[in-house]
Amino acid sequence: MIEAYLKAYYEAYGNYTGLLVNVVLAIPNREYYEPEVSSFQYQEMRQELNLLRQKRYSSAYLNDRAVALKFKNQTRAYLQALDDLALEKKQELLLSLFSYEESVQEYFLRITIDRHRMIRRLLSELREFLKVSGLGRLQLDRGGSV
Fold first, then answer.
1. Is residue 138 domain-resident?
2. Which of 18, 20, 81, 118 has its Cα between 20 and 30 A from that of 92?
3. What would the pLDDT profile of 74-125 be if each residue is shown by its tens digit?
4. What stretches of the chain show up as alpha helix (H) in DSSP?
């Protein structure tokens, strides 16, 4: 089914650029955290968050808004740092994929779509696109061809 989808996509668009972007962005961010998340900087941030969480939920500071606000802000900062790391790595991956020939791009797409089980989502997006563009009368059969 994936091969048929990729073939139909390539025939419709002439390249895999848009699909590569969609697929890479759909990969969960956690796939991009290593090895940086194990670095001293991130370990230190996690340790500080753990200490703040213990302080936040201890009986002495239970109603302390300053501690709650600091915990909330540092949690946001940590999560934002992880998101920034993942986005940077996704951009690097896309730039490297764009430099490869289409057979390598197709191989990456096939493996990634299968590994992350994206084919149903991609097919539903295609069906939605066909409805919106007035091509809803076209049928997508179960075999995956367009």
1. no
2. 118
3. 999 999 999 999 999 999 999 999 999 999 999 999 999 999 999 888 888 7
4. 2-13, 17-26, 40-56, 65-99, 102-115, 119-132
